[in-house]
Amino acid sequence: MKKHVVVLLAVLALLLTAVTVSAAVLIGREDDVTHRVLNQQGDVSAADGYVVHAAYKLDDHPCWYSRIPFGQPDAVENDFRFHRKRLSFNREFAGFMGVDMDNNLPMELELQSKDSEYFGKCWKEAGKPVPPVLEEYDKLAKQTPEGSVGTKVFKLSELMDYYPIFWHISFGDTINSWHTMSEWLYAYDIGEAEKMENYFRIPVLPEETCTLTVDRRENGYREGEDYREEEAQEGREQFVLQSFGDVLGNTAYFTFDPHTTEGNPVDTSQIPGGFGLYAVSLDDNNQVDYDTLTTCMPLDPAYTPWDIVADPDSGHLLYFALKDRSLWLQVLDPQEGKILQQLPLWQQEDDYQWYRVADGNIYCITSGRYLDVFRKNDDGIYSLALHAPMEDDTFCWDYLYEADFAFHGDSMAVVERYLEPDDASREIYRDRGHCGFRLTVLDESGVAYQGTYLSSLETEGRMDEFPGNWTEKAKITVE
After folding, report:
1. What is the C-alpha separation between 261 and 275, in angstroms, rounded?
2. Nearest to 330 by CA among 298, 295, 360, 354
3. CA-based nearest residue to 355, from 314, 415, 402, 315
4. What pTM does this model have?
């Protein structure tokens, strides 16, 4: 036993020595870290006043820090730290908060013969009838010979009077979910499910059809495909439930798009208060209290919801919605049930992206054609501070959620991770990473400056000298 302990201590000492030697080698070279621009467009002086804070780490321990104030080349600072504890570079963006609802029964399941019976058994044990669509699926699966594909088309109205409502409610630490096809159905409170389903009674479209497909061509499995996929491809009218919301304190506020795929309104007359802004709160035990489910205020169905953002300082909600192909911001007071302000933003393009960021009293949204910055004034009224044209490729949309934003004067600066041309579509980036960043400054004329910068950690081969998992993080501030 003592021998094993001695060997273990020797191994640990060797590892510690190796780490210490590596750290010593690295520490002596932190001052020679530089950043060179690979490519740029526009006038770099447009970035004056912005400061990029770049950090690069190797395998969670050694980390280089660079402070790069644009317009002050002699004020660049570099630092190196060896963190004995693991250093996390988790990106600082919030997880989902609010209520997410849908009405699409998932048929992307691989079921063996006993599985559909298991689902039915769970429903019966829960004291609730087995959904007819699940029974139809089970019938079709049993009728389909192994090695073949079975298909059946039917009207939704033959199987249900109202659309099924499934949801996921998140207050961060408190999460509630409900889904008809969940294999953990027995763990859910059927009473809670019925409260939500009875509140949001939306009659199915009389002519909406479903296509059920069972594929038994491999391994004897019965794979069911999405029961609405073919209808969407053929352009038939459907109602696909999509919700939007955010959290203020212990209350989640939300709404949904009340239109079909053809833009026609669905029947919301059986929802208490009709179409509007809804709320559900936590109880004293920090659990979702479905008895608090209520309609705070009506909303005009002529507007198509796009997003809801909470303003915790004022207790108001920023409601983004489309009307006549124009995007509007409405400031809602959920306590008083009033619209406090309406602000037109921009015309919707045929092909658009959607991204928003909130930072204190500054809010930024982009459609892929324009970047808008609006801010809350001292009187609580929002005003448009910047409307900048841009191109689809101005940002890397796949990673924009990890970018950092800053607003200064009459421009907005965005710092993103450095990507080689094909990195955005390759998993190799996740395996190795880079040491660099891209800075974009936009003003009312568009992109005033964009530059891609690469650290000497990469250009001088230090990433190859010390192989491992390199990751980067960049933030931007104003001075």
Report:
1. 17
2. 298
3. 402
4. 0.74
* Cα 252 from Cα 299, distance rounded (Å): 17
DSSP assignments along 370-438, one per residue: EEEEEEE-TTS-EEEEEEEE--TTSS-GGGGGG-EEEEETTEEEEEEE---TTGGG-THHHHH--SEEE
Structure tokens at 300: 């005009």
pLDDT digits (tens, 9 = 90+) for 79-116: 887 766 666 555 443 456 778 887 765 443 444 444 45
Q: Nearest to residue 418, comparing CAs of 396, 438, 398?
A: 438
What are the φ and ψ backbone dihedral angles of 438, each rounded to 5 degrees? -125, 130
Q: What is the DSSP letter of 258?
A: -
Neighbours of 92 (CB within 10 A): 9
pLDDT of residue 46: 95
Query: What residues contact 25, with CB distance under 8 A and at least 6 apart?
Result: none
In 108-266, where does DSSP find H-type helix? 113-125, 132-143, 190-199, 229-234
Question: CB of 329 within 8 A of CB of 311?
Answer: no
In this structure, what are the phi and psi dihedrals at residue 133, rounded to the nearest 5 degrees?
-65, -30
Q: What is the pLDDT of residue 370?
A: 80
CB 194 within 8 A of CB 139: no
Residue with tokens 């059809």, as numbered in its chain: 209
Asked if 29 contacts 447 with a C-beta cutoff of 8 angstroms, the reply is no
User: pLDDT, tens digit, for every residue of 133-188?
Assistant: 777 777 887 888 878 888 888 888 888 888 888 888 888 777 676 665 554 444 45
Q: Which of these, 157, 164, 162, 112, lies nearest to 138 by C-alpha position?
A: 112
Q: What is the pLDDT of residues 344-380, one digit of tens each?
A: 877 665 445 566 666 666 777 776 678 888 888 888 8
